[in-house]
């Protein structure tokens, strides 16, 4: 996973709306899919033009956004 910048806003109902992500020194618009919360933090599925679905994760303890391929699991020691 790599840390990324995320332009988003949190709604009153607790959900997040992601507008764009900062990758390779540029802001890129995204399409957003479903989202959920688990032991890692908040997860949001996104799609960049011409790329497969990826997963943004807002770390519960770090409060930083990370990007990873959809379905990639993180194993905790």
Tell me what the structure shows.
By secondary structure, the chain is mainly beta. The chain has one domain (2-69). It has strands at residues 2-3, 5-10, 16-23, 26-29, 31-37, 41-47, 54-59, 65-69. A hairpin with a 3-residue loop joins strand 5 and strand 6 (41-47). The protein is globular. The mean pLDDT is 90.
Poorly predicted runs: none
Written as H for each helix and E for each strand, in order along the chain, the element string is: EEEEEEEE
Q: pLDDT average, as an integer? A: 90
Tell how many strands the DSSP assignment holds.
8
Structural class: mainly beta
Tally of helical runs: 0
Distance between the termini: 16 Å
Radius of gyration: 12 Å
What global shape is seen? globular
Give the quaternary arrangement of the chains. single chain
Strand residue content: over 45%
Q: Approximately how much helix is present in the residues?
A: under 10%
Q: What's the layout of helices and strands?
A:
Layout: E1 2-3, E2 5-10, E3 16-23, E4 26-29, E5 31-37, E6 41-47, E7 54-59, E8 65-69
Antiparallel strand pairs: 1-8, 2-3, 3-4, 5-6, 6-7, 7-8
Q: Could you give a short description of this structure?
A:
With 77 residues, the protein is mostly beta strands. It has strands at residues 2-3, 5-10, 16-23, 26-29, 31-37, 41-47, 54-59, 65-69. It is built from no helices and 8 strands.
Task: Name the features.
77 residues, mainly beta, three-stranded antiparallel sheet, 8 strands
